[in-house]
Design brief:
single chain, Factor Xa Inhibitor, 3 strands, 30% helix, 15% strand, elongated
Length: 66
C-alpha cells in the first residue's frame, strides 16, 4: 500500500507539540498593523492553539508529523 502524502502547506503553518496540541501563528500580521492599538499588535505576536474542531482534519493532513 502506498504511503500517505503530507500536506506541505499545513505542515509549514502548524506544528504539533510534544503533548499533541496543535500550535499556529495568529493570522492577520502582514499589513495594516499601524492602525491597530498596541494590545492587538501584542496579541498577534503570540502563537495560538488550533481549534479542537479542526484537530482531527489537521492531523489527517500530517500523518507522519508527530
Amino acid at each position: 500500500m502506498a504511503k500517505i502524502k503530507t500536506h506541505k502547506a499545513t505542515s509549514k503553518r502548524i506544528s504539533i507539540t510534544k503533548t499533541g496540541k496543535l500550535k499556529q501563528r495568529k493570522g492577520g500580521q502582514d499589513h495594516f498593523n499601524a492602525r491597530e492599538n498596541g494590545k492587538a499588535g501584542t496579541k498577534k505576536r503570540r502563537d495560538i492553539n488550533s481549534p479542537k474542531t479542526q484537530e482531527k482534519t489537521i492531523k489527517a493532513l500530517m500523518p507522519y508529523v508527530r
